[in-house]
Design goal:
By secondary structure, the protein is of the alpha/beta class. The chain has helices at 24-41, 59-75, 94-108, 118-122, 126-132, 142-160, 172-185, 188-193, 216-226, 242-257, 261-280, 304-318, and strands at residues 13-15, 20-22, 50-54, 78-85, 112-117, 165-167, 197-198, 206-208, 289-290, 297-298. The radius of gyration is 20 Å and the shape is globular. The chain starts with 12 loop residues before the first strand and ends with a helix. The structure holds iron/sulfur cluster and zinc ion (2 copies).
């Protein structure tokens, strides 16, 4: 039996990058301390008093919620939970299960929260977009529309409650996947945008990625060992592209051969390359104004979200294109 490096109990995990075999309790303690160290060293919550945690109900956002909650009193910030009911069903009740898991965790931790049901509030669901989007003249893939919807709802809620930042559950694997696929396709503007901290600008509230150095294996193990509810299912709209799977596999093979390489790569990107890209290629100064319909920030007359909402309203009401 392999023993925990810190006690005599049976080790349940080997963290090769940290050269440690750990038992359940010491793994939880190790990962929580690492998270706290990242927050403090990278100054992710500097000057932040009120933070929204966007919880989808999956392993990453539930981990994020628990870890931020644990240090909130010590570091002096307040947490608000937000979960968005996207209306994704497709015979899997995906959104229902996700929202239920999020709410259970908010209540367990006694955190103030809000559930935004996009069907009730805006009249359409993501399933509607998948089904009627083309008819409505929407050319972008459903996940791209879903991303716009989530960012809009998060930012609107953050503005309403005067939050200083929105924390999202992007993990280490998401970060590296994003970086490699952006490099592969030459989307360097996207690389420039992927930061640990995206500062507030006008009515766009700051976004932070506190899990960017914690792997998906670690977040999964964390929620399983804490025995906290989470939705383990995958969204039915997920498109599993072989190419993207291959990128993830390549990153994991590299880690297998050179333990710690994932963290090193993420650090190199987030702390050296991304800041350099932002310095040498500053944002084009686009005029930001208020959307004529919803007053949220946009560069055009009407924001991207309102365009989607209007197109969906038309197609769902009249069946027109
Ligand atoms: Fe939205 Fe796509 Fe994620 Fe499903 S997989 S939640 S549709 S972004
Ligand atoms: Zn131990
Ligand atoms: Zn708008």
């Amino acid at each position: 039996m392999v023993k925990c490096r810190l006690c005599n109990k049976k080790a349940i995990v080997r963290l090769r990058y940290a050269r440690r075999d750990l038992c359940k309790d010491h793994f939880i303690e190790f990962i929580e301390r690492r998270f706290e160290k990242i927050i403090v060293e990278r100054k992710l919550l500097r000057g932040i008093r009120k933070v929204i945690v966007a919880v989808s109900g999956g392993k990453d956002s539930i981990t994020l919620l628990h870890m931020l909650h644990r240090i909130s009193k010590k570091l002096g910030f307040e947490i608000y939970g937000l979960t968005i009911d996207l209306g994704i069903d497709l015979n899997s009740s995906y959104s229902k299960k996700s929202v239920e898991a999020a709410v259970k965790n908010f209540e367990m931790l006694n955190i103030n929260y809000k559930v935004v049901n996009i069907k009730k509030k805006y009249g359409f669901t993501i399933d509607d977009v998948a089904r009627y989007g083309r008819k409505a003249g929407i050319r972008k893939p459903v996940c791209s529309i879903c991303g716009t919807v989530k960012r809009y709802v998060m930012n609107k809620f953050a503005t309403e409650i005067k939050a200083d930042a929105i924390a999202t559950g992007h993990n280490l694997d998401d970060t590296l996947h994003y970086v490699f696929s952006s490099i592969y396709s030459g989307r360097w503007e996207d690389l420039k945008k992927y930061a640990l901290v995206t500062p507030s600008k006008y009515k766009l509230i700051s976004r932070i990625k506190p899990l960017a150095y914690i792997s998906e294996k670690e977040t999964l193990l964390y929620v399983l060992l804490k025995e906290t509810p989470f939705n383990h299912e995958v969204c039915p709209h997920t498109v599993t592209r072989r190419f993207h799977m291959r990128i993830r596999k390549m990153i994991n093979e590299f880690e297998e051969e050179y333990p710690g390489s994932k963290i090193t790569l993420a650090r190199t990107f987030l702390e050296k390359i991304q800041p350099a890209l932002s310095t040498y290629y500053p944002e084009e100064e686009k005029e930001i104004r208020e959307c004529e319909i919803c007053n949220m920030p946009t560069t055009g007359k009407v924001c991207a979200f309102c365009k989607i909402r209007l197109a969906m309203e038309k197609v769902l009401k009249y069946g027109e294109s």
